[in-house]
């Protein structure tokens, strides 16, 4: 056992930090929030650094790395709330295609992802108020009984991250009357298709925009079906677990930065003739922020490792990660605002960027409450023979 | 990054597990109960520790030359996990084994090691830690218990210690005294190894809220400390004090907390209220799940700390994080365990329920004070990890230095 990041992981983090800082750090998120599309340029650079190739298997021109490596990178990206669908592409779409795709699908998509020519996202919700899996309602109707089937997709998906800045969206549909994750099939849909429209939503987190994704009667053939017909549900759940862990890795990076900002301010800012960090109300709050951040980081690392190794408790670890981190890290960002006094409550301070990210992340792909339900069910199922 | 155990480490686990199957006190594996009677309990615990020591399972983290097993940090983690799994009886000489011996191994003389270590291991000599005084707890360096050389190669100790765990059964005390009060508070301290069974020392048990009497007041009235039993140097005891404190912060009780959690889960699964199992109530499910996530986080954090320490060699301030996390987790869990008892929470030992954590819940308040309070741990993290300025009062005093 050596539960630390390897030197290679740390090196990747360091180069990523240097690169993002040289690009302006959180300014990238600010520009994206101002409506500028920074993703295109940024993506070329990320591809130049091979970051887009990390999870792509070796035979398709990637590095064949898993969630641990990616989480290390995303932690560095999260320090600056780096815009762009890197979690969606590298943590969600690539493993789905790698694990479920046909040879054709792999050789169509994966090398382009590695080269930085293709970005992907995931569409699960049909409704912004219904939780998953109930919100998966869009149907994909099978046309005819021919050997090579065709499917007709129709309807609107919502809350699709970065849909307007991606080339392909993996869409969760129902292909037979069913409930839960049973009867779910996944289709890869190209965003530049005439029948497809993406509309940017008024997102809480301006830097990581959500989109509506409308399909106005689109016929696709079997080549668009990722994984088994009716049987994509369990792979989707694992994909969402990867997404959860990846997103939390970014928040951990942000929280690490927030603690750093609070600690720096605590040594510089003086009130009543002394640095405010000498007041234990501030010192202890900052210490608690650090402890919560470390707890979330430990869970991210463990879950990433468990997902990579297909450990029996991988899903439980992912559920623990989201349920532990969502509200605690949100509080870390709030405490960072508080520690900075009036300065903290300004557009110029970074705390609000992180805070919004944490809040919009909270219920996405499963609230902490929903994840706690999953967690306890899993625990009750295994605890006897532990 | 690798959270898995190597084959070698798993072998260690299985060896220990097999040994426990064979050697756990009779009936313990089915029904882990300590004798009620104080004297019987002490005898029982001494026996247990001797049994452990005889087969090399008492001080697993000690070097082999002193009778330990030279276990790596990961093996120590496995050791704690396995001991928690069978809810093993505590080691009565815990302070000797976990705090005093490692300190002696690091800074004691060879003669001191030869003289004391074997008997610590076998529990032939039980130890206590004489730090706190009525006016000096968190602020250990403000202590006043005084030691003066009498010219015959001996030192005479006068003063009072308090909250001294196990002093009533201890044979020796790791005693911090003031030998010079002309300088700064943390200068002029000296650590002695002092024999408890002498005329100059008397102990008086303090009654604790959970009804036990495991800590004491200790009075020194011209007690004799031998000059060759100084640890480190005269007037330079602060470093020794800090060495021991690092060991005090550098372990975790997360595995025993996890065992309690699993017992609580089992209770909530089988116990019904108005015909519904507790675990099916949303509020209770959510809380149980949150504890589960916190325990997973604490364990993974501990693994990360251990991995870091395995390389750096010394327990760093991360120990304060382990301590803080597990103290609060234990308390919150036991508090919740009492809450789910329903009206029976009004009872001390509720005969109707198979699950009773009342005294554990009361005891948990002591745990988060004992090795330095949560406030002190937060100071350590704030100052030593995050680089925040030291508060004026703590600059030269409290345990965090
Ligand atoms: C179960 C138990 C077993 C113990 N066993 C031993 C033992 O074997 N040997 C031994 O020597 N001692 C032992 N102790 C004593 C223990 O180490 C002290 O109680 C502890 O260090 C706190 O000191 P105090 O009791 O004097 O409280 P104080 O130091 O007076 O603290 C009172 C309150 O003030 C806060 N406070 C104090 N200083 C600061 C500061 N700088 N910043 C912020 N807050 C502060 C504390 O957090 C606490 O809330 C034991 C205590 C307990 C409860």
Automatic annotation (TrEMBL), chain A:
The lineage of its organism: Archaea, Methanobacteriati, Methanobacteriota, Stenosarchaea group, Halobacteria. The keyword DNA-binding does not apply. This is Acyl-CoA dehydrogenase. One of its GO terms (molecular function) is flavin adenine dinucleotide binding. It comes from Natronorubrum daqingense. Its cofactor is FAD. Keywords: FAD, Flavoprotein, Oxidoreductase. It holds the Pfam family Acyl-CoA_dh_N. Residues 245-375 form the Acyl-CoA dehydrogenase/oxidase C-terminal domain. Residues 6-117 form the Acyl-CoA dehydrogenase/oxidase N-terminal domain. InterPro entries: Acyl-CoA_Oxase/DH_mid-dom_sf (IPR046373), AcylCo_DH-like_C (IPR036250), AcylCo_DH/oxidase_C (IPR009075), AcylCoA_DH/ox_N (IPR013786), AcylCoA_DH/ox_N_sf (IPR037069), AcylCoA_DH/oxidase_NM_dom_sf (IPR009100). Belongs to the acyl-CoA dehydrogenase family.
UniProtKB/TrEMBL annotation, chain B:
It comes from the Archaea. Keywords: FAD, Flavoprotein, Oxidoreductase. Its cofactor is FAD. This is Acyl-CoA dehydrogenase. The keyword Oxidoreductase applies. Residues 128-222 form the Acyl-CoA oxidase/dehydrogenase middle domain. GO terms for molecular function: flavin adenine dinucleotide binding; oxidoreductase activity, acting on the CH-CH group of donors. The keyword Oxidoreductase applies. GO terms for cellular component: plasma membrane. Belongs to the acyl-CoA dehydrogenase family. Residues 235-386 form the Acyl-CoA dehydrogenase/oxidase C-terminal domain. Residues 6-124 form the Acyl-CoA dehydrogenase/oxidase N-terminal domain.
